[in-house]
Amino acid sequence: MHLRRNSRRTLRRSTALSLGGLLLAAPLLTACGFNYATDRVYTPASGVNNRDADVDVLGAVIVSAQDDSGTFIATFTNNDTEKQATIESLAGASGNTIQAESFSPIKVDPGGLVNLATDGGIPVSGTFTAGDFIPVTVTFGDGERVEMDVPVVPDEGDYAGLDSSSASPSESPSETPSESPSESSTESPSESPSASASE
Question: Strand pairing of 85-92 and 133-140?
Fold first, then answer.
């Protein structure tokens, strides 16, 4: 009789302990297999991504070689496999004064993509410097808009040479004309009078 009571108590304790262990492990077990970081879309890069519209904006950055000017670079991917998409405008968002120079609408074929890094990008101006995040609104031909905080990156490393807005053709012409007229005007008059006087 005494042995039966002890065995019942032991059985109850072991059952209670095993059920308690299962209850404690339940949150851990339910967390396994769901929402892995490797299951989420992630592109390791300096640029930002937006997939809210029919056209994905991927790897968006403003490449800047000098303060207050730069070039918007991104890849536009058309998720619609039947209709062509267009990017109509690029402007500052949330009261930001960034401005994009006028450009023709960018056409993206059905199911296709356009990489602005190979197509020259969109020159922009405003008040910013490398390291800033600029609120930018991209407007599509179907009326959809996306807003994103785009980082400003320096024109170096992977982005070297992508800032088309920093090309200043006034630098090279200003140097060459200043040298040649001064040399020709000072040398030729001074040489000819001295040569004629000595003769």
Answer: antiparallel
- Under DSSP, the state recorded for 97 is -
**Residue 135 β-bridge partners:** 149
Going from the C-alpha of 108 to that of each of 37, 51, 78, 150, the distances in angstroms are 30, 15, 6, 21
Give the pLDDT band of residue 13 (cuts 50, 70, 90). Answer: low
pTM of the full structure: 0.63
Pairing of strands 55-66, 69-78: antiparallel
Between CA 82 and CA 79 the distance in angstroms is 9
Q: Phi, psi (5° rounding) for residue 30?
A: -70, -25
Band of pLDDT at residue 169, cut at 50, 70 and 90: very low
pLDDT at 102: 74
CB-based burial of residue 189 (10 Å sphere; 0-12 exposed, 13-18 middle, 19+ buried)?
A: exposed
Counting other chains too, the contacts that 79-83 makes at CB distance below 8 Å and 24 or more residues apart are 79/54, 79/55, 79/111, 80/54, 80/110, 80/111, 81/110, 81/111, 82/110, 83/110
**Mean of the per-residue pLDDT values of the chain:** 76
Identify whether the C-beta of residue 58 lies closer than 8 Å to the C-beta of residue 75. yes
Are 77 and 56 in contact, with CB atoms under 8 Å apart? Answer: yes
